[in-house]
Write a structure and sequence with these properties.
By secondary structure, the chain is α/β, with parallel strands linked by helices. It contains 16 helices and 15 strands.
């Protein structure tokens, strides 16, 4: 099948970008002909084997560039003549659209007044409304029930126009390894000169404020445990706060890792008090690795979390909620934690790439056939 994929940044990086490059790679491996319409690529995505239609970045402002890409992509897709076109970002004209980032109208309410009033944000809201109300896109794919409900309610979409296809997990890569995890935890603790018997809470993030690091830091002076941060460096504000709050020996930044798998396995719990995520890859990956999570109710991935697999953070912005939930997690016995780890892995074990792509093909056949 000849498929056109539209997204302005075909690069490796964040969750959506990594998903998209993996998605394209798996489609090509299965014999599909993929053309990617974009303005940016990198060496890794160029090596995947897709045909690249690279558009010239236009517009003098962020808002202008978003609008210009939407306009250019619409023309490019018409010329490609693909059997199916799929949008992944702020574009409005394709057969299918995957809302991997969730509903921007909901996320907008979490932004500061200054960011809400920015021309870029207003343009994003405008394009989202156009996407869901213009009728140019026939069907929408989301990665969680939470997002499906949000889009149906806000944009009055019929249920038949929205399908939930959960994000795929590479279950061969993300899988439990208790021996490696215990060994790595001891090694990291020795390097950090901390007690390996103290519970470790892993926080993986490229955007620390949205993912809830502020609330973690406010809570952590009251908590018996260590936080390992994997992701972007801490800025001066966070570093100053760590020193002021006396957290230098409790909260540790381990750097940005190309493969977080060993750190999932080494951690006792995954900590994710995000303000908003459609369905965070990190939550599914950590569960696949057998890590019980403390997961925000504002992440669509929380539908895989219950008392048997982890804990729901009902109010992730409240440090006291984090304190109370960590206390409950610390009280779990080693035997029960192992049961939770096994249940977490089982809960996402069906989310393989074969299952994922099969779900996509079913949607394409049923909705566009």
């Amino acid at each position: 099948m000849k498929i056109a994929v539209i997204y302005d940044r075909f690069v490796r990086g964040g969750g959506l970008e990594n998903y998209l490059s993996d998605f394209v790679g798996h489609l090509i491996f299965r014999g599909h002909e993929i053309t990617v319409v974009t303005t940016r690529t990198d060496a890794e995505t160029q090596a995947i084997g897709a045909e690249i239609v690279r558009l010239r970045p236009g517009g003098l402002t962020p808002a202008g560039r978003i609008a210009d890409f939407d306009h250019q992509a619409r023309i490019a897709v018409e010329k490609i003549g693909a059997e199916v076109s799929i949008g992944f970002g702020r574009t409005t004209s394709h057969d299918l659209h995957r809302a991997g980032g969730g509903c921007h109208k909901v996320y907008n309410e979490l932004l500061s007044p200054i960011k809400r009033l920015s021309s870029k944000n207003r343009r994003e809201l405008q394009l989202e409304r156009e996407l869901y109300t213009s009728g140019r896109t026939k069907h929408f794919v989301v990665n969680s029930t939470m997002v499906a409900n949000q889009l149906r309610n806000i944009y009055n979409l019929e249920s038949s126009r929205v399908s939930v296809i959960h994000t795929a997990v590479d279950t061969e890569r993300f899988c439990p390894d208790l021996y490696e995890g215990r060994t790595l935890k001891r090694d990291i603790c020795a390097e950090l000169r901390i007690d390996p018997e103290v519970p470790v809470y892993l926080f993986v993030s490229l955007g620390h404020r949205r993912k809830g690091l502020d609330a973690i830091m406010e809570a952590w002076p009251e908590i018996d445990g260590h936080v390992w941060i994997v992701g972007n460096p801490l800025d001066k504000t966070y570093l100053k706060a760590l020193r002021k709050m006396g957290l230098e020996r409790k909260v540790f930044h381990l750097g940005r890792k190309p493969d977080p798998t060993p750190y999932y396995r080494a951690a006792d719990f995954f900590l994710h008090p995000t303000l908003y995520d459609a369905c965070a890859n990190t939550v599914l990956q950590s569960m696949a690795c057998g890590v019980p999570g403390l997961i925000s109710k504002h992440d669509g991935a929380c539908q895989f979390v219950d008392d048997s697999t982890g804990f729901i953070l009902e109010n992730p912005w409240d440090p006291q909620c984090i304190i109370d939930t960590v206390i409950r997690a610390n009280a779990v016995s080693a035997e029960d934690r192992l049961k939770m780890a096994q249940a977490a892995t089982r809960a996402v074990s069906h989310l393989s790439w074969d299952y994922h792509l099969g779900s996509w093909m079913t949607v394409i056949d049923q909705k566009l056939g």
